Amino acid sequence: DVKVTQSSRYLVKRTGEKVFLECVQDMDHENMFWYRQDPGLGLRLIYFSYDVKMKEKGDIPEGYSVSREKKERFSLILESASTNQTSMYLCASSSKRDTQYFGPGTRLTVL
Amino acid sequence: GQSLEQPSEVTAVEGAIVQINCTYQTSGFYGLSWYQQHDGGAPTFLSYNALDGLEETGRFSSFLSRSDSYGYLLLQELQMKDSASYFCAALNQAGTALIFGKGTTLSVSS
């Protein structure tokens, strides 16, 4: 079974803090994705990566950056957290782009 | 741009059949996927239709009509455990990432 793990299930940070969300997959997938999920808005794509050190902006990249130094790990960085970044963050990986495997999510609260 | 529209809520009773529709507008289209997400859980892949027609997987089936820019997920013999959110999704124009609809919350009652 594909396993995608995220570093924290719940996280509470203060406005202005730098926040790192980590995602690791164990299936040697080329593609990895970060989404945020908010009630009534569904899943919105923040960034994705189709290879090590490669990254592409999704629909809502503002306020975020990513890092992919190793194939199995994809990090989402909030340079200066703001309250409007309070959300559920979901990481996913895939070998075929139409079939994604999601991690359990990190519920981030920014105070 | 790209958008997928689906109803926000659907309710049904155990044993019934329910259909969740999805209409899409995309600049390029590769196929339609469906995902299930239980409350507090991660989305999980259900099905993918690249070609027109019906794909059946147990109690769940998915249908696609490219000419109508429309698809649906059909759930038969509903069970309480089918209560969840269901998302349709399609690859973006470049074919590099999935774009999701806003989701349909299915509530199954006894």
Note down, in words, how this protein is organized:
The complex is a heterodimer of chains A (111) and B (110). In chain A, 0% of the residues lie in helices and 54% in strands. By secondary structure, chain A is mostly beta strands. In chain A, strand 4 (31-38) and strand 5 form a beta hairpin. Chain A is globular, with a radius of gyration of 13 Å. Helices cover 0% and strands 56% of the residues of chain B. The mean pLDDT of chain B is 93. The A-B interface holds A 4, 31, 33, 35, 40-45, 48, 50, 56, 58-59, 90, 92, 97-105 and B 8, 30-31, 33, 41-45, 48, 50, 87, 91, 95-103.
Please describe the topology of this protein:
The complex is a heterodimer of chains A (111) and B (110).
Chain A: E1 4-6, E2 10-13, E3 19-25, E4 31-38, E5 42-49, E6 56-57, E7 64-70, E8 73-78, E9 87-94, E10 101-102, E11 106-110
Chain B: E1 3-5, E2 9-13, E3 18-25, E4 32-37, E5 44-49, E6 53-57, E7 60-65, E8 70-75, E9 84-91, E10 98-100, E11 104-109
Integer-rounded radius of gyration of chain A: 13 Å
Q: Which percent band covers the strand fraction of chain A?
A: over 45%
Helix content of chain A: under 10%
Poorly predicted parts of chain B: none
Task: Tell the overall outline of chain A.
Answer: globular
Distance between the termini of chain B: 41 Å
For the structure shown, list the relevant keywords:
heterodimer, A: 111 residues, mainly beta, seven-stranded mixed β-sheet, four-stranded antiparallel β-sheet, 11 strands, globular, B: 110 residues, six-stranded mixed β-sheet, five-stranded antiparallel β-sheet, 0% helix
